[in-house]
Amino acid sequence: MGDFMEEYMLLGKIKSKKDFLYFMNLYINTMKNVSIKEYLESVSSWVEDMEGYYKNTNQEIPKNINWDFIATLFYVGSIYE
């Protein structure tokens, strides 16, 4: 993977669709040589351990996460043309 510092600095500041699309454009253009399977496995592993991430970074775990919306994003990414 490439240098994701600019994308990382945006996390916690994405408040609109426009912000999200800006983030995604940066992120897409930084990705290199990562298979979709490896990426999805990494996402799943992180979600399993996300409480540790928030604890280690002294952040509050987000409340009211819309897991169905997140699943929908991943699913439609595989079928949308």
Account of the protein in words:
The structure is a single chain. With about 80 residues, the protein is mainly α. It has helices spanning about 5-10, 15-30, 35-50, 50-55, 65-75. It has two domains: about 1-30, no CATH class; about 35-80, no CATH class. About 65% of the residues lie in helices and about 0% in strands. The longest helix has 14 residues, at about 15-30. The mean pLDDT is about 90.
Termini Cα gap? 25 Å
Low-confidence stretches: none
Q: How much helix is in the residues? A: 55-70%
| SSE string | HHHHH
Query: Count of helical segments?
Result: 5
- Average pLDDT confidence is 92
The largest sheet is: none
Query: What structural class should be given to the helix and strand makeup?
Result: mainly alpha
Count of the domains: 2
Question: Short summary of the structure?
Answer:
The chain is 63% helix and 0% strand.
Q: What brief labels describe this structure?
A:
81 residues, mainly alpha, 2 domains, 0% strand, globular
Topology at a glance:
Blueprint lengths: L4 H6 L6 H14 L5 H13 L1 H7 L10 H11 L4
